[in-house]
Amino acid sequence: MNATNLFSNTKTGTQSHHGSQDEKYGDSPRTATQDIVDELPHGYQQASTKVDPDEGFDPDFLKKTIRKIDWRLVPFLAACYSISLIDRTNISLARAAGMNAALKLNVGDRYSIAVLSFFIPYILLEFPSNIGLRKFGAAIWLSTAVTLWGLMMIAMAYVKDHHQLAALRALVGVFEAALFPGAAYLISCWYIRRQVQKRLSFFYVLSVFATGMSSILAYGLGRIYTINRSLQPWQYIFVIEGGLTVFLGLIGYVVIVDFPDKAKFLTEDQKKMTLVRIQRDRADAEHDPVTWSKVKTYIMDIKLWAFALMFMGTTTASYALSYFLPRILAGMGFSTANSQILVAPPYVWALIPAIASGIMSDKTQIRSIWIVLNCFCAIMGLALFAFLPAANTAGRYAGIFLCAGGCNSNVPLVIGWAQISIRAQSKRAYTSALTIAFGGIGGIASALVFREQDAPTYRLGIWFTIGFHIYIILACAALSFHFRKRNAQADRHGEILEGHQDFRYQL
């Protein structure tokens, strides 16, 4: 290709002085690609983030490259995360399809223990997994994880008691620990800050849609039992969904792309342009290895803990919906079959605020306000469900819509704001792991506060979740005030933020 296609004179529309359109890569003593190289390996720490990341690049070439990255990176990772969310939460659908009676999960806290067993390894292994992701490559690391937890899902169809179920759920947690923090880390390393949130939102909303559709899928799989009774309905859920997971994992060895500096699907010019844009935006295009001395520094960064607690709050509600919504709907008077079907509409609705929030967050480059608005929606929805009369089924079901839209929209928003507020790839790996690990703690919290003895109203869990959303609102206000103050200090007194003189926080 023409290396000089990278550049255009954006003010006059004339050709860059570095060469004509006919010059090929390497034919000229001075090419546009060599201009890019000047910003690369020795200019990583010195590159100014005040320069617009897109300045000087040919708009058509830039648009084509971003579109190419979008299609290669986001959809397949989204598909993998969708199947991971289905696999970790389909225990609630299997429970409604007969597993509860088969394994006697209604005795004591057996069901809650089975739910909790997933999260312990999931939380503990996320940061080590992100280190492995960089060491072994995204395709090998993530695809192996997907394939292995798919095999564990198939094995769950043949468990004989709740002990075996809990053990296999723990192994699913071991392997799923690789995907969500790894995907968030990988996506954030590919895009400049004003493009990250929309991609994370699209990455996540497919999983929201898939979660809703999984209830209908479970209903359909349960109907297979009427044709072939070799397995129980709940066993078909695990076997077929686990088989789909293994199939997706095997495809991933070919499809999943690596970090920008290792990408093989881009031309050399596209790769270097991608790295320069990231360098101009936040000056961390270069990989810096994770060391314990760095981790000790990151642990002392209070804002990372604030983001982690915010993420815990929003996932408490989202996991509660995933694990207990079929039970909640049954408590509202719907049959088992209708409960499975009625799980889907709130998740389909959640696509709209999730996509809209992601787009507006990137467009305005203001992050906190959209999180706060979604929190108010979630609180309103929880209040409608909890405090409307039991006979008002329509109003309570509408509350589930508002809660699903609010809490699920905030999942990618909190992750995105955390990733946008830091520099250095090692810190990015740590932050994604810490944030999503606290999301796993939110899953544990949902299992503990949405107690079986409180069914079907789950009043304790509702109040707990409302309280966490109030915390998220207050945390957004505090972080915005803190970031505004730090930006002002950097502008007036030259204070260095995130290790770079030109870095500024987004509110």
From TrEMBL:
Pfam families: MFS_1 (PF07690)
Gene Ontology terms: cellular component: membrane
Keyword line: Membrane, Transmembrane, Transmembrane helix, Transport
Annotated GO MF terms: transmembrane transporter activity
Transmembrane annotation, as ranges: 73-91, 111-127, 139-159, 165-190, 202-222, 234-256, 304-325, 337-356, 368-391, 397-418, 430-450, 462-483
Record's compositionally biased regions (Polar residues): 1-18
Protein topology in the membrane: Multi-pass membrane protein
UniProt-annotated stretches for the region Disordered: 1-30
InterPro entries assigned to the protein according to its UniProt record, in alphabetical order: MFS, MFS_trans_sf
Compartments reported by the entry: Membrane
Alphabetized SUPFAM superfamilies for the sequence: MFS general substrate transporter
Cited PANTHER family: MAJOR FACILITATOR SUPERFAMILY (MFS) PROFILE DOMAIN-CONTAINING PROTEIN, PERMEASE-RELATED
Protein name per Swiss-Prot or TrEMBL: MFS general substrate transporter
